[in-house]
Amino acid sequence: MKHSFRLALILGFALSLVAAALASSPVGTWTGRIVVDTSKMTPPKDPQTQSAIRQQIQMAQKIMITITFKADKTFTAKSTGAPRPPKTQTGTWSQSGNTVILTPTQASPSGKPLSQSFTMSKNGKTLTSTLPGAQMNIVTKIVFSR
Predict the structure, then answer these.
(1) How confident is the model at residue 113 (pLDDT cuts 50, 70, 90)?
(2) Which CATH number goes with the domain that contains 104?
(3) pLDDT band at 17 (very low <50, low <70, confident <90, very high)
(4) How many domains are there within the chain?
(5) For 34-69, how does the pLDDT look when each residue is reduced to its tens digit (9 = 90+)?
(6) 138 occurs within a structural domain
(7) Is residue 8 part of a domain?
(8) Which domain holds residue 79?
(9) Which residue, 17, 66, 79, 127, is the most exposed by fewest CB within 10 angstroms?
């Protein structure tokens, strides 16, 4: 009896691990927004610069990005809402634990790949990337959800 209970417990644990691993795969379609945190921003003294920053933040917050992760480790992303025409990007993705790395097919102007790292939440429902180059302590992130 103890052996059966122990076996059932081990099988139940193994199944829950498999389910958790499957739930944390990024495969599927995600919708993302740009999130701008200005709570620690160093405010510019010039009113024109303040206005320009507000306008840039408002434009960034209107952008919506849809990304589809495919099981063959490729992705397609499309951004809309920007002042320029919608842009589609393709590439490959990889995952290690809760880190998902996107490597676009198109290289940067310098010829180097533009890989971007995202962190998947524990429940597998959000992907977040903090964009480099914070100026004036403005933190910008891309947050995707399913």
Answers:
(1) low
(2) 2.40.128
(3) very low
(4) 1
(5) 998 888 888 888 889 888 888 888 888 899 999 999
(6) yes
(7) no
(8) 26-145
(9) 17
